Predict the structure.
Amino acid sequence: MIAVISDDDEFRRSLRRYLILRGQYPAGKVAEFQLSAVTLADLNPYDHLILHVPRIHKNGMDHFGLAFCAAQTSFFSNKSALLLCIDDPKDCSFSFDKLGATVPVRYLRLPVSRVDLLRELRMKRRSIQEVGMLPCQPKSFPVDEQRISLGRHLDFYSALNSVSLLVGAFLSGELARLTATESITRIIRHYLETSGEFTDNQRKQMYERLAALRGTPDEPDDLALTDYVHNKTILLIDDQQQFGWGEAIGNIFYPNGCRRDLGADGLPVYHEEGRQGKVVCASTQEQGLQFLASEKEQTSLIILDLHFGGRDPAGLRMLDKIRNAQKEPDDLSRIPVLVFSASYGASTIIEAFEDKKADAYFCKAIEELVERKHQSYEQTLKEYFRIFRKAVIHSCHKRIVRFRSKSENHIYDDIRAWLNQFSPESRKYALTLLEHIDFRDTAKIRELCRTSHEKLVETIKTDTALNAFYIGVGHPAKSGTHVLFYYRHENLSNDKIREREKNESVFLSVHDLPHAASLLSFDKGKAFYKRHKIVLVDDIVGSGKQFVEEFERILEYLPFLQDPEFHDSVYYVALLGLPKGVENIVKRYRHMEGRIFIGEELSGRHQAFSEFVFPSPTDRRNAKRLIKTISMENELYFDKEGRPRPFGHHNDALLIAFEHNTPNNTLPIFWAKKEKWMPLFERKE
């Protein structure tokens, strides 16, 4: 229900009539009240309020309407939205700030004049939601969390910096002159409508930027920024509700026909028809958290433009809420956060990075760059855009940067060089695959070793230090044997093992077995192997075929294991595995059912051509065709029989990389090193 409150009878009745005629509200849901006569009891049933306040003075809360709002804090805390109509908004900023700090309404929207409001509704045929009101939503946060700053006009420096970014994108060859000009026109028009005319100094600064539009743009980069974000859902949280940044970022990310619409949740959305990606603009912290709660899995990047200064910075509080809301135990699945800062080297920004809450930052104050760099405006604007571009790309690939030993600049160069090997048609698919690669560092490997061993201990019901032999699957240089090193140190580094190793080998590779026949032989007797178990340790189970190959070799050295009497003596432990691979192993070796322990079960997100990675069937087909062509043309990988395997060993097409090595059932485009192919995660043979 909505209430229109004004002492102007004509305005009040016109607005009520419009809301009913346009079908936005039934007649019984819209009421009108005189401001000078309204009581709290009158307004109690209404969730949405439109309050018209006549011209007021600059010296504070000296008008009844604003004083009424400020005095009724507890009353307004139960309301969902308030739209202020001020006869002369541009002269009242002091009162707005004061009111915004006092009234805890969930949605306190941009003040507009009553004339402008009616013009927007009648002539431009816009809805009340587009002008300022938002639909009522369930309140899931305490009242103190609903306190938000009053939405301000588009301030000059936000307009200037967003215009600078658009001009920089044009000069860098990533945005057409016409697109940049149209977007800049919308930003300037919005500023003039909400904040008034430019001062002489402001006009000079803006003209310096606009003059650069006459310049000649550079040749576009082989990898445009739009290539990196073409399929991403990006959330922009801006507590100042500034029009400029959403407009600039939306047009830069989607330069071939950016559209601005309202999403189902009432938030502005910038997108390009025919593409999956979008930029969603939240003007309050609460809106941002609600969006994340509903679309966490789809969100690839968060851009945070909040206040990071003062004793209790809103930006740091929001970072904490974002990380707590995700509840991720590690860095692998976290959504990267790019922070917009008003200054280089701000202490709170440094604190955010030290605590690993933020992943990259961009200083939006171009004036600091102008003061530090003695160069032309064109060069400064290009550099401004390049800094922004690099911050976005680093954020997108932060997970890779986080676990690689090289510096961030080297990683950026490596990714760029790797992507440049692909044709423009296949590059976007390569980027999508790269974004889904699951890179496991040493700490995660150790954690998986502990998890898989705990599952083993629950079933084996024997002293694993005294009564088990551990065999790393594969060649001594392969990952299975490498993992055995971590497995031992995490689970079996104790006095029992050390004492036992004085007399016999406990940890072996498959290639050690011919030399360990005296230790692992039938001569020990059935009783020995009824008591002692053989645990095969591996890094990953893909299709299961690789385990079958290795297990057949083990049976050649230890043929007695084929005897049904010894079937309960063999166990298999792997850090990662696909359920299908485990099923294939059990189909081949029935006695292995219930004896395979996986530290973490893999899913479709780890398979290159799954619906999780490429939701569109067309994209899946195109990606598979193009990656196969690239792999075949560059002869990236052949199996032992000389058959091409464009998608890795047994064509498993996995997206897994370890810090110590990359499995060969991961796509070869990531790990194969050839004369004309540079890998990103080189496999060590």
